[in-house]
Write a structure and sequence with these properties.
The structure holds two protein chains of two kinds.
Chain A lengths: L1 H4 L17 H10 L10 H25 L19 H10 L5 H32 L5 H13 L6 H11 L6 H4 L6 H14 L2 H9 L4 H12 L1 H17 L2 H6 L7 H11 L5 H35 L1
Helix pairs in contact in A: 3-15, 4-15, 5-9, 5-12, 5-14, 6-9, 10-11, 12-15, 14-15
Chain B lengths: L1 H32 L1 E4 L3 E5 L3 H8 L1 H32 L6 H9 L6 H11 L6 H8 L11 H28 L4 H9 L4 H12 L1 H16 L3 H6 L13 H11 L3 H31 L1
Antiparallel strand pairs in B: 1-2
Helix pairs in contact in B: 1-13, 2-13, 3-7, 3-10, 3-12, 4-7, 5-7, 10-13, 12-13
The chains are: A mainly alpha, B mainly alpha.
Chain lengths: 310, 289
Amino acid sequence: MTTTLTPPPGAVPEPAAPGDTPAAKRRRKRKNEGSTGVREATPLTYIGLSLTVLLSVFPLWWMLVVASRDSAAASARPPYMWPGGNLLENLERLFANSSANFQLGLVNSAISSTILALSVVLFSSLAGFALAKLKFRGRNAAAVGVVLTMAVPVQIGIIPLLMLMEWFGWRGEITAIIVPFMVNGFGVFMMRQYCIQAIPDELLEAARMDGCSTFRIYWNVVLPALRPAMVVLGLLTFMTQWNEFTWALAVLTPANPTVQLAINQLNQSAYSRDFALMFTGSVVATLPLLILFFVLGRQLIGRIMEGAIK
Amino acid sequence: MDLRVSPYLFISPFFLLFAVFGLFPLLYTVWVSLHDWTLLGGNQGFVGLDNYVRLVQDEKFWNSLYNTFGIFLIAVIPQLLLAMFLADTLSRRIRAVNFFRMGLLLPYLTSVAAVAIVFSQLFGTQFGLVNYALGFLGIDPINWQGGTLSSWAVIAVMVDWRWTGYNALIYLAAMSAIPRDLYEAASIDGASRMRQFWQITVPMLRPTIIFTVIVSTIGQMQLFTEPVIFGDVSGGTQGQFQTTMMLIFEEAFRFNNYGYGSAIAWMLFMLVVVISALNALLSSRIKGA
């Protein structure tokens, strides 16, 4: 696991075998490769990519179409492809639906996701900073330990974790979906990597000379420098928690759900499925993530891509 | 004093929380699995390996493993191949590259439960859009949920829809680190685009490919949300799409059998560890070759 997390390509490619392509094709290809070696896009490239984006977006679009019409719309033939005017009415029905507790689900998800985003960022930056920049006995072992925890599928310990929640009296409470996940190995690892590259030792030494305590160095020097990484880690944590389903299904009840459980409740409980209602719930459950994405998406893409090469 | 203590203070929240809520439950699973342990009755006494003996003879367990691996294979292989082709396409000189990147990442940003609900409708037997579209090709409606392979296919589509773009971005990043002159040299030698892809891009991406394979494997071995929302924890009338994680859930939280559920969980854990180790071994072999 350790080695695979820090890839960069080192393999030497096998030499290309002598050309077996028809000469005409070869000529066309060569025209397409610019002198820099970056290949030009052809119309086919755009068609292929547009098709892929269409496939990516269509289920979301369809979700909105059905959510804004009545229940029969999902099975109408030919299918509607354009939103209707019932979205507000469906939203009202959604929040009035007593079996789903949708409103409470939204509040629970918002609270738990926000708290976790903050706490993961805080604890991960603390630990990441210590592992990257402070000297102490056992530092290397601790760093290896962090990476190992990332490779362990802790969800498999779900039964004893539930028993633990019963002992604490947290079953059915949102503390059960918050406290166990207040920090994770990925966050610590990410912050450690970022500290190593973004914070020069001289800066810390200077602060130390000025008489700063270690915590003040963390708070006044390290945290501001970590801001880009913190935003992305916070966003990722928020998304992950917002989407969490397995553990919430185990530990919470329909009376006190997360938003994911609430839409699942609409899906499971209906005798004749009210698609408009389920899809409206899906739109509401997805919207906060989409808003976050449009505000912070570029940074997220940058970080996903950076994470792959560092 | 400050210098000596604060590093430990800084790392302790992580290790304390992990010990209590990660490591302890995982290890305690072994202890619970050696007991007859129910929700209401609590610990009914030590039964040794009885739960494991039952598990080896339990058809539902083997069925769940078969489903987990089956779905894994038909989901992950096309997903990673497609992601690689997409990344290769995106690495060309392209207008509006950010538009395409964001378009591809959009599914990853969608609520999982919402994805599962929308796709369940799209693949509905009577009113689903997919069957409607197939009708134009003269294909009779398919009972997607009813068959083994057909239900696997729907779940694989849900998984792939959500993750292909994400993996494509990871590959794209790794591709941008491949020296351009390799392609230039190859194209002067007359290598076709396809040939360049298989003989330059893929070998250079090897470490990244291994990384994505490992991450996808660990994730897919615990596949749960998509199949549960597509059906429920029993995974269809014949359990045709019940994954191992779903079986753990069914045993522990529907039949209230913590002991037996823990035995299945521990087997799944061992399996993930073995597969990860095999992956690691294989990748070091490939690197050495």
